[in-house]
Amino acid sequence: MKTFPVHSAGSRREFLAKAGCGFGALALADLLAADAVPARTLAAPGAAGLNRPVAPRRPHLRPRARSVIFLFMEGGPSHLDTFDPKPALDRLAGRPIPEGFGEVITAMGEFRSPILPSRRTWKQHGQSGLWVSDWLPQVAQCADELAVIRSCWADGINHSTGVCQMNTGSILAGRPSLGSWVTYGLGTENANLPAFVVLQDTPAQVINGPRNWGSGFMPAVHQGVRMQGGSEPIPNLNTPEGLTAAQQRGKLGFLDRLNRRFAAGHPEQTELEARIASYELAFRMQAEAPEAVDLSRETEATRRLYGLDEAETATFGRMCLQARRLVERGVRFVQLYSGAGSRWDAHENLEKNHSALFRQTDQPIAGLLRDLRSRGLLDETLVVWGGEFGRTPMSEKGTGRDHNPTGFTMWMAGGGVQGGQAIGSTDEVGLRAVEDRLHVHDLHSTILWLMGLDAMELVYTHQGRPERPTLNEGEAFRRIVGVA
Q1: For residues 148 and 477, what is the distance between their CA atoms, to the nearest angstrom?
Q2: Are 72 and 335 in contact (CB under 8 A)?
């Protein structure tokens, strides 16, 4: 009995490419090309093509910022001890939140843990008179640059869901990160560096790992690239010893031909397309990336500004200085993780935990703001500070605070933001946001809007469904720029 080889049915793309002498692929190619460009976003002249998958693109709106530096305090810093003073914590110290205490607290009788007072000293700073605690003496001197948002709230109650939502807009894994949406919508201004870079202060893995800066269902080329210090900012980037530039180019050229031959028959595998682009980018980065993170080129005064001469501040100081050098060179989105591995999570010994972490970050962050301002970069660089949630007014284990996604603080500076203002408020004990409440989707919409992107117009079609960065929710808080 004669047998016939059995071939896999393959993907729908393969079927269309092979059926009807390939005519089905013509319509498919047109649809895919349309899907590859965000709505109302046009590629810059001469920027199209596989070799420039993150070429510069025109924004939907007038952009106020060109780059974002997101300072992520992983684990959830306490808003009640930093930017949101609550005198009621001292009055009610050691007692549970009373029934009917304030409008929002009425239904919170289940929170019976005693209230933990704040041990901070509070002062008003700058011409604006913003309240900042003594944990941040250097950042306090930059008060007139800050728009402090005291009314943030989120859905994630644990670190995994909270970090996931603050990065991707969803408590469920699998969606593109905010940095990926920015690079998808705007591309990069430097073809020799990644458009989206991630730095972290410890070898410990950030909770959820690389999924926080992943591209989800979008092409893999939009995912973030984790950099590190030293002479090799990206592992395996340097040319091996004994290999000439001509040999390297020949090797990469051969790999490129093999990859493209395979990619032609498997157009659904965006990971391969991203790998081809990454090889090309890596070759260009061999010249530019080491220079971009070479801090020896900075003056001694700049190094002191970031705290590189002090052991406690040197690590995060280097990260902040690298972030400035990257945005200076056209990188769109830089995310810095402080306390990688949820080290800001202070269920007990809040004083010891936060005191140490603020000693590590206060001067570098203030140095970053001052350096950006002195170089004329702050107006076009949006700096965002915060974690996945805040902390509760009630104590945990007598010396700490639990997770609080119902009301917490973040701040923004630069990028067109009007500094020296406090936006929104929490209730009398800082448990819940009550005025000008801004959900994570609102925060993301605001960041995108400042970058010139309309969250509802930034569309990627996935499996026939139009996907947007804020899941069709959220609204940009336009008053952050001082316009009513």
Answers
A1: 13
A2: yes
